[in-house]
Amino acid sequence: MVPPDAVEIMPDGLSMEAAAAFRTNYLTALYALGERGSLKAGEQLLVLGAAGGTGIAAIQVGKLLGARVVAAASTEEKRNFAASFGADAVVDYTKPDWRDALKDVTGGHGPDVIFDPVGGEVSLQAFRSIAWNGRHVVVGFAAGSIPALPFNLPLLKGGLLIGVDAAQIARREPEAQARVMTQLSVWLNDGRLTPVVGKVFAFEDFRAAFTTMQTRAALGKMVVRIGS
Predict the structure, then answer these.
(1) How confident is the model at residue 19, as a pLDDT?
(2) I need a surface site. Which of 42, 62, 93, 139 has the fewest CB within 10 A?
(3) Where is the Enoyl reductase (ER) domain (predicted)?
């Protein structure tokens, strides 16, 4: 059963598919970047897994907060997809020298904030590239493995490792959730934010949807439509 305070009126003009792609991804992105990561206008934001549902949301939210956004993704298709939704630069984190590319596109500065739904070795390498006083915000482990961060890295970088569990925000920080949802609604209503919908699957094709998710082949937030 869904608690009453978790139900909100769907904004006018928003399709059912866009509404399904909206709440969790964009709540996670703005809470992670605004409330926890303290992302400021003019700072540099690195988004890992940038073509996924939360990644694309983080790109859009980062731009709305005034950041310069670097999108990291594993294929050219995904990097192009991220760029089409506002990323200022892209890097391929599957390449051995990707940290050099990241250094180049950030002008030697490194990212001030890292939005990380990926995990695995790429997370460790990203933290090694973080700017002084940078904030690495962890929102998930799409790579399937949880990295172990050597404690000397936060010391040497003056960096913060920050965890975000969207499922706990409403219970533990209802005031923060209210602020985030209010801001997202403003952006939606004035046309500055349009939720990105990936491929829409019919309910009977849920196996194909699950396979797409497992293989990390999705672009944007996948949606499974129940009914016609």
Answers:
(1) 81
(2) 42
(3) 1-224
